[in-house]
Amino acid sequence: MEHRLLEYFLAVCEELHFTKAAEKLGISQPTLSQQIRLLEHRVGSPLFQRIGKKIYITEAGEILHKHSRNMFHELDQAQAAINEIQGMQRGRLRIGCSGNHLLTATIIAFHALYPKIELSVTELATEETKERLLSNQLDIGVVFLPDEDEQFHYMPLYNEQLRFVISDKHPLAQAKAIRLTDLAQLPVAMLQRKFYVRQMMDDCCEQSGFEWKPAIELSTLESLLQMAKNNVGGAILPQSYVDSIRSSGIRSIPIIDPIPQKDVGIVYRKDMFLCKTMDMFMKQLMQQFL
Fold first, then answer.
1. According to DSSP H, which parts of the chain are helical?
2. Residue limits of the HTH lysR-type domain (predicted)?
3. In the Cβ-directed half-sphere of 269, how many Cα atoms lie within 13 Å?
4. Predicted pLDDT at 86
């Protein structure tokens, strides 16, 4: 079975849309369809089925999907081991993170030492990072540490606390701190529910015995910051992000009784070959925080 056919197959599995998968692969949609039909002929079973306008993976497709992912993972592991023999003169490292600001200093230092290593950093929610680690689309993640999972190794870096960020023209701009229950009465902008920062806030409120809903839901930390700077309302942001921007015109107020907080750390698959590239990047990162 050709390596190329499996690449095409995995692209369709990821997109569940032939046109989008073809665009991603840089080929025409009819070519992709023909190649999938060829693969189905070779395995002797349909891999996809259409129901209405949607595409679904068949049972045979799920089996091939699992084994194809494992195969590509093993090939990547072999390449990582070969790169280590070559002394980090080539290779790549794919990283998912809960905020690019967490990695900026480490990326600069690492690139100065190993300029031939390709770094790819994608900002994702914690669960999205874990999913991409399992599907071999990422090598390591820097995320809010979830509950223990037997599939992953976890390395804590620091404890993240959430802050109430407001314009320096806000009536509470001179406040030393704000209680969680008082915060729930104010118009606040917050990340959507898929993000761990939002889940931290929701869980903290629930444990304190009340329900809290933001006035505005957004999908990036930068957009939340703009809401605060323009005095549209307050924003809930990680302290590490606020410290990294050093923006004028805003105030960062501690949230107390209780403090919404969670450990942030490195996560990677237990069956991942810990090559020198991964090891050196993680050591650089730990030096930044520890």
1. 3-15, 18-25, 29-43, 59-85, 104-113, 126-134, 180-183, 196-207, 221-229, 239-245, 276-289
2. 1-58
3. 21
4. 59
The Cα-based distances of 196 to 4, 144, 160, 257, 262 in angstroms read: 37, 7, 11, 20, 9
> How far is C-alpha 282 from the chain's CA centre?
16
Contacts of 177 (CB under 8 A, 6+ apart): 253, 254, 255, 256
Confirm if 284 and 140 have CB atoms less than 8 A apart: no
Query: CB within 8 A of 276, min separation 6: which ones?
Result: 83, 84, 88
Residue 211 one-letter amino acid: E
Crossing angle of helices 18-25 and 29-43, rounded to 10°: 100
Pairwise CA distance, residues 151 & 243, whole Å: 33
In the chain, what are the helix, strand and coil shares in percent, each to the nearest 5?
A: 45, 25, 30
Pairing label, strands 140-144, 261-269:
antiparallel
Contacts of 270 (CB under 8 A, 6+ apart): 150, 151, 152, 153
A 10 A CB-CB count for 274 gives 15
Instruction: Give the pLDDT confidence of 84-129 residue by residue, as tens digits.
Output: 655 555 578 999 998 888 999 999 999 998 888 889 999 998 889 9
| DSSP secondary structure string for all residues of 39-84 | HHHHHTS--EEEETTEEEE-HHHHHHHHHHHHHHHHHHHHHHHHHH
Indicate if the pLDDT at residue 229 is higher than 80: yes
CA distance 62 to 68: 10
To which residue do tokens 């023999």 refer? 85
Indicate whether this model's pTM tops 0.90: no
Q: Are 205 and 212 in contact (CB under 8 A)?
A: yes
Q: Are 276 and 101 in contact (CB under 8 A)?
A: no
pLDDT tens digits for range 33-45: 888 988 888 888 8
